[in-house]
Amino acid sequence: MKGFLQSRSLNGGTPVLKEWGITSETGTLREVLVGSIEHFSWRDGNATSRRHMRDGVQFDAAIAKAQYQEMLDVYRQADVNVHILPPQADQPYSIYARDSSVMTPWGPIVCQMYSPWRRAEWVSVLNFYREKEIPIFDVVSAGTFEGGDFMLIEPGAVLCGCSGERTSLAGAEQVKGWFEKEGWEFKIGRFDPHFLHMDVQCVMVADKLAAVCREVLPDDVLIWLKQKNIEFIDVPYKDAMELGCNIVSLGNERVLLPAESKKLKAQCLAHGLTVFDPDISMITKGGGGIHCMCQPLRRD
């Protein structure tokens, strides 16, 4: 399989990319990949969207598109170069570009999606990397693995969620093996599928600072983060289930979060961070937030 689809050195020591790649979730964001909103609409594949659809909330495509543009404007204001995947009518959730691939210091990993109606997304993302001549680190082939469960907490340390659905233990263990060959620590946190992805419960805000829903984040993950001297900003359960924890660090003490995350915004400001808070509520009601839409391609 060696070649474009597997640039990984099987015994470790894979060369770090020079023009692409990330080593953490908090370095200064320079390049980002997002999906198109053109064909986005809510689907009942997660608890958040099902709840809003059950309650009679109506999806408004015009509002969603306006909110999406507001988010893109923030990235551009923050000097981030935005890449947008081409729209595909059969991929209504490809707006959540975080899930179909993840970036590493050595190139992207192409994921294996859980939901049947999202599995074609790997084709679009693979074509993007081919066009940009970004070598693929590897492709997940054992079980499922989605990018919303994957985060580089800091250089040398990965946190990977595993619900058994969006990311299976087989998928997580396969990627863990790749990282351990490169000398990285790889922590797998197990949780109930109700919480969808790890980035619903925990996301890095800045160096050594994480937004965490302690009510649901597994105890062993909390202990692991504390051992790394990571400070917590508490996010209430209700806020977390509305994607309030699902935010993006822009680096340089800046953070992008949804307007509805008022408590988190106040705490970020108290920590001296600059906050950008566009309203993306018409998008988050579909079950994915700012972090779900952000696939970092390069950070300092």
UniProtKB/TrEMBL annotation:
Q: Which Pfam families match?
A: DDAH_eukar
Q: Which GO terms describe its molecular function?
A: arginine deiminase activity
Q: In which pathway does it act?
A: Amino-acid degradation; L-arginine degradation via ADI pathway; carbamoyl phosphate from L-arginine: step 1/2
BP terms from Gene Ontology: L-arginine deiminase pathway
How would you classify this enzyme at the top EC level? Answer: hydrolase
Coiled-coil stretches are none
Q: What is its EC number?
A: 3.5.3.6
Lineage, uppermost ranks: Bacteria, Pseudomonadati, Pseudomonadota, Gammaproteobacteria, Aeromonadales
Q: Which reaction does it catalyse?
A: L-arginine + H2O = L-citrulline + NH4(+)
Protein name, UniProt field: arginine deiminase
Alphabetically sorted, this entry's keywords are: Hydrolase
Q: Which PANTHER family match?
A: ARGININE DEIMINASE
